[in-house]
Design goal:
Blueprint: E1 7-9, H1 11-15, E2 18-19, E3 22-27, E4 30-33, H2 45-50, H3 57-63, E5 76-81, H4 88-102, H5 112-132, H6 137-163, H7 170-185, H8 189-201, E6 229-230, E7 235-236, H9 241-248, H10 250-259, H11 261-273, H12 282-301, H13 306-329, H14 346-353, E8 356-358, H15 364-367, H16 373-378, H17 384-400, E9 407-409, H18 410-432, H19 439-447
Parallel strand pairs: 1-5, 8-9
Antiparallel strand pairs: 2-3, 3-4, 4-5, 6-7
Length: 448
């Protein structure tokens, strides 16, 4: 074969290289072997494994700055994808990313990080003062509520710093992650990256997206009743009698569960950090968690009696539940699918699996920019202060290609979510027992 002649592989041949140790991907028609690189990939192995054996150009563009392209050459196999085609949607999406990059929108971060960190620090001081210097139960209640808001804002800083560099250097960025995540909220940034990267890549896949895998407590689709295997967790999501019972009433239990959802996040943090999995910066993450589990119990212990301590913890958890609810609103009532994500319908999958929350601009701080969920999923490296600006452009592109762009008020999004949960609950009840029930059972199920 002549030296200048290109070598090609077909899409079917590329698909065969889709497992650990034999992992190929295509970017703009060039085929790369990332088998060894997967273990060093900053975003972890899971995104590469989920998209293995296919063209991943749109996902690569979404998550990597222009400087990342230079590192691909050493991974090039020498092959090109024979039947490489780019859809009209992808062409428009790539054009948008290029235009936004040229205008500097990925670099213009404003003063969001410093303002957020300053507000978190001030709130923390007020909480300390309210607990340590005030004797009024109302002051303690107000401190608990403020602590809940603090946790929400701190989580947004951790989220931002996980997607792009919010500080002046990588070192300070990692420090911001550990302080805002591990030290202040008690939730490991390592756990967040592990699950969040998988969520973004496989948005609303019932068996690949961990953010929809809440069996036995919640199920957003009756397809979960088939006891799907979670590719992320590597276990079966068992739809057993307990799951059936809990899901039958999930539209009633949703908000109460959200009030104590942080307990599960703490548990997930410990399960990961003390597991056999490879965890980046495990020691630093554990140290950060120890900081949280030092100051928070000590703060609670300073309250005068156990009723107030219980009230303080529950109130702070309940306020933070607004954020947990928000994350559910963005995806629970959107479209779902079963199977791995596909690289050739990146834009379509993001529009299908997300839902925006409409609000005034002065509320952007409260939602952390994540009310623009679709925009965030399409441009995850874009600072939150830019998302409102690109929203009309994304809306127009969705309209051009006849794709869904759903933007609901906070109230409407709650209605959609409860309706989705109720639909699945009623389907679970139909599966539970076809035999006649007593009158009380019938009344509850009829009006459930």
């Amino acid at each position: 074969m002549a030296g200048g002649e290109r070598k090609y592989v077909t899409a079917e041949e590329l698909k065969r290289h889709n497992k650990p140790g034999d992992l190929w991907i295509s970017i703009q028609g060039k085929v790369y072997d990332v088998s060894d690189w997967a273990k060093e990939h900053p975003g972890g192995e899971i995104p590469l494994l989920n998209l293995a054996g296919q063209d991943v150009t749109d996902a690569f563009i979404a998550y990597h700055p222009g400087t990342a392209w230079q590192y691909l050459d050493k991974l090039f196999t020498g092959y090109h994808l024979e039947d490489f085609k780019v859809s009209e949607v992808s062409k428009d999406y790539r054009r948008l990313v290029s235009e936004f990059a040229k205008s500097g929108m990925f670099e213009k971060k404003g003063h969001v990080a410093i303002c957020s960190l300053t507000s978190v620090a001030l709130m923390f001081l007020v909480v300390l003062y309210g607990v340590l210097r005030c004797e009024s139960v109302w002051a303690h209640l107000g401190s608990a509520m403020l602590l809940g808001v603090l946790w929400m804002q701190s989580a947004y800083v951790g989220h931002d710093s996980g997607h792009y560099q919010v500080m002046s250097s990588r070192g300070f960025n990692k420090l911001a992650q550990l302080v805002s995540g591990n030290c202040l909220t008690g939730i490991s940034i390592a756990w967040w990256k592990w699950t969040h990267n998988a969520h973004h890549i496989a948005c609303n896949s019932l068996d690949y997206d961990p953010d929809l895998q809440h069996i036995p407590v919640f199920a957003v689709s009756s397809r979960l009743f088939n006891s799907l295997t979670s590719v992320f967790y590597g276990r079966t999501l068992k739809f057993d009698p307990l799951a059936r019972f809990l899901i039958c009433y999930q539209h009633w239990t949703f908000y109460p569960v959200m009030c104590v959802a942080r307990v599960n996040l703490y548990l997930q943090t410990f399960l990961l950090l003390f597991s056999n999995r490879k965890v980046p910066d495990r020691a630093l993450n554990i140290m950060g968690i120890l900081v949280f589990w030092t100051w928070f119990p000590l703060l609670v212990s300073c309250l005068p009696n156990w009723p107030e301590r219980f009230m303080f913890v529950l109130t702070s958890f309940a306020v933070t539940s607004i954020q947990h609810v928000q994350f559910c609103l963005n995806h629970f009532s959107a479209n779902v699918y079963v199977g791995p994500p596909k690289g050739n319908d990146w834009f379509e999958k993001q529009t299908s699996g997300t839902l925006d929350i409409a609000c005034s601009s002065w509320m952007d701080w409260f939602f952390g920019g994540l009310q623009f969920q679709l925009e965030h999923h399409l441009f995850p490296r874009m600072p939150r202060c830019q998302l409102r600006k690109v929203s009309p452009v994304v809306r127009d592109l969705c309209k051009k290609h006849n794709l869904p762009y759903r933007s609901l008020s906070f109230w409407e999004a709650n209605q959609w979510t409860i309706r989705t949960l109720r639909t699945a609950a009623l389907q679970a009840r139909d599966l539970t027992n076809p035999e006649p029930k007593n009158l009380l059972w019938e009344a509850v199920n009829t009006h459930g």
